[in-house]
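Budget justification, computational time. The allocation requested in the original proposal was used primarily to generate structure tokens for proteins on the priority list. As evidence of use, we reproduce two of the resulting records. The first is shown immediately below.
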Amino acid sequence: MESTKTKHLLVEVKKGVMQLTLNRPESLNAFSPDMISGLKEAIKQAKENEKIRVVLLTGAGRAFSAGGDVKGMGKKEPIGTYDHIGKLNELILSMKDLEKPIIAAVHGYAAGAGFNLALACDLILAADDSKFIMSFSNVGLISDGGGLYFLPRLVGAYRAKELFFKAEPLNVEEAHSLGIVNQVYPSDEFQASVALYAEKISSGPSTAYGFIKKIVNQSFHSSLEDILEQERVTQATLVTTDDHYEGVTAFKEKRKPNF
């Protein structure tokens, strides 16, 4: 087990899972420059370290993340805002490009850019006390951090615009019914359930998972013909891998594969 800590981010690696914990509990894990840069660096490490097979993103204290730090807003600084969102964009793109699963573990509030950070992950697990809110219009802003991209693809344009316009919380049951949340767990079992879920994903065929993530993401911008050809070429590559051999061998031997 490895662990490191920056000012606003905790990093721990255990059993192939890199857990990233947003660590500003006094401000409900509102974003800070240190947090964003720390996340980007951690994603880079996950990309370079083959022992890391899954990234698990969560928050310390009472919430996942309140998103942007409202205390620092209202100063009419376009250049600073442009630069800050540029750094956030770099983080979101690095998450998309990481060919390993990223799981968001949400409890309490995921608000504004905190909601969008969760949406940038590949899977969202939520405690039964979770609430999701696109809070930007409450302070006269549009969504940033990719929300205007991710949310319409999940819930459709009309429902997404309603969530952006009204800026009202979704409870976890509503978020689950809309396809935003993959799994819901009781709050008192949340940490243990999330750990087991992440460990199960980390024990899977990581090379295949990387291709799945990449091709699914590309499918929103590609034709059926393009995706069929990617499937064809990728499958021809994967049949030569140790994971495929192990999976077939385990099936024949009636045992669980050890990828």
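The second record produced under the same allocation is shown here.
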Amino acid sequence: MTTAPPRLVPLLDQFDFACERLLRRLAGPVMDSGDGGDTRVEPLTDEEYFWEPVPGCWTVRRRSDGPGPRAESLAGGGPWGRDAAPYPHPWPPPVTTLAWRLSHLTEMLSLRADHTTGSRSATREKHPVSGDAAGAIAALKTAVADWRQALVSADDTALDTVGYCTYPYGSDAEEPFLDIVWWVNQEVLHHGAEIALLRDLHWADPRT
């Protein structure tokens, strides 16, 4: 059994906690209420997955429908894609749906895992985008497990190696792997909080 380097352990524990809390928030049947108790939660539905809290949201769309407002393309592979635009991105940034946020987070985890311990060839253009809530949750679970496996395979030398992860859509080639681990945790916490807030807003919206 491989033992994680001591300085990786707190980041790994944080990643595990954040991912478990997010997945429970999405799939239920209970979630961490924040005060030590459990709160019942219904699984994410397709209607909620595509819910647009304001007009003009970026979301996940059928490729045949083309990109949405202020988007120039649909990222990903397969029949579904995620609204996207090259730098500089539109300003102010478009509000994004649960579908968009889950796709973005899943892609980031999956591709970084591949560019750390996998084929190091995965691209956004080929990464599948889920067209339904259940598929998106399943894809996120797989991506979480893949990235976690990449983490536990890293030894102290790997943590200090610049460019150990070759993910081509960030600063990975210029950063020690430990810094990338920290950054990915921040992304999970950041987008997890956004997803949780969107679920709260959907539940509170009298139109839904």
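A brief technical remark on that second record: Residues 23 and 137 are 7 Å apart (CA to CA).
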